[in-house]
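Morning F.,

Quick status update on the modeling queue. The single chain you submitted on Monday has been processed. Sequence for confirmation:
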Amino acid sequence: MIRASGLCKAFRAVAEERVSVLRGVDLAVAAGSSVAILGRSGSGKSTLLSILGLIETVDGGTYELNGKDVSRLSDSEAARVRGERLGFVFQRSLLLPHLTAAENVEVPLLHAGALILPRTRRQLVAAAMSRVGIGHRAKHKPSQLSGGEQQLVALARALVRQPRLILADEPTGNLDPSTGERIVRTLAELPSDGLTSVVMVTHDHELATLLDHRYVLTDGRLGVVS
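Structure tokens below.
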């Protein structure tokens, strides 16, 4: 699914000085597996996830997704790949407050490149919400949902276009421990179809153990957590 080799990324800081965040990151993620990336604040975890999500570009190295080098796509090509193959879950659910849960999940389908008929959209929304166990809250608006339920809706929204890779950036950061564990367990179960892969950035070592593989980002490089 993912094969990244020698990824390097630096940002311009004060006085035109460039600060290196990633210094040769190697990562392989098989189809149907889940990966947790740990590291202290400012270690570059979110930057790495943004590169894997084709939001940030790399300064050096290569990134292959499904066997294709996507390291240096144009903006339009990167947007197309994001829409077709990737799903995102962030620390905040970012749900639209005036829409119901089901309508929020449907939003990516309304912006799909090809026309999707209303009946098909309803079926895809129902399947995604059922998959994460939030179908019973389909008609409720975000203000009527708990923080954990909002994150499950956000996860269903990420799944509705049936992506092969889910990228989650600190998805439990605003949740209590028990609700956070529920979210991560749901993420960990997604690869059971053998097709979907999950990469989650987190600072929580205990929650990271729920995923198949664990790595830690230190000094710009990725190491295996035993």
